[in-house]
């Protein structure tokens, strides 16, 4: 049975530091029993702040990064290196440093293909979704279509979206592992996202969110509101779901 825990931190900086410490400890714990370790990263304010906190943590030296594989829950379908790509922000905050100084193989970074016509790039969000799904399938066991992610991090927007699964959007009900998303209400309009089926296949899902603008939707999700209005309600891990909030984002709860 899946369990849920809500942890509230005083402010976004403490939240990011605590999430980073928790993430590094989770990787270490998993490495004690199996390898490789599969982690899904998120974009967004707290997601990137968490990666910056990992970069500055002494605990990162305890991890064997050579067996850690990094994925994304969603991506903005933009050219490689675009500052708005979740991949670009994660590389700048942490990943380039891990490759340069901590033994993370560049090949363990599994980004969603960028928009373009070069090697490894995709002409459409559909092509990017197909390629990303194939990459995921290559690391899946048995009949699964994706790895059993050890941790899947998700930010949450003020509208309650997670990954690129927005309220009232057809992608909410998408089948398969990965879905191309068009007409996103938050720019850019074209995106690629894991589906809820894939998110639910993760052993642990952690939702990280800060700020008073998130309070109403965090409360609605924790009160099991309708997925069409508050997609974050479907952010549930197979074994465990963690909600890591700052006090402002937690303030809407009873
Ligand atoms: O566009 C996105 O937004 C969400 C949340 O971002 P935030 O800045 O409000 O924290 C993020 O989780 C998602 O990965 C990203 O593509």
Describe this protein's structure:
By secondary structure, the protein is α/β, with parallel strands linked by helices. The chain has seven helices and nine strands; from the N terminus they run E-H-E-H-E-E-H-H-E-E-E-H-E-H-E-H. It has a single domain, classed as Rossmann fold, CATH 3.40.50.1360. A six-stranded parallel β-sheet has the order 1-9-8-5-2-3. Helix 2 links the parallel strand 2 and strand 3. The longest helix has 20 residues. The chain is globular. The two termini are 25 Å apart. The relative contact order is 0.18. The model has no long low-confidence stretch (mean pLDDT 98). The ligand O=C1O[C@H](COP(=O)(O)O)[C@@H](O)[C@H](O)[C@H]1O binds next to helix 2, strand 4 and strand 5.
Average pLDDT score: 98
Helix-strand category? alpha/beta
Number of strands: 9
Bound molecules: ligand LXAUTJHC
- Within the largest sheet, what's the order of strands? 1-9-8-5-2-3
CATH topology name? Rossmann fold
Task: Say what oligomer this is.
Answer: single chain
Query: Low-confidence runs (pLDDT<50, min 5 residues)?
Result: none
Helix-strand pattern = EHEHEEHHEEEHEHEH
CATH hierarchy: architecture: 3-Layer(aba) Sandwich
Radius of gyration: 17 Å
- Contiguous helical run count: 7
Largest sheet: 6 strands, parallel
| Helicity, as a percent range | 25-40%
Short synopsis of the structure:
With 254 residues, this protein is an alpha/beta fold.
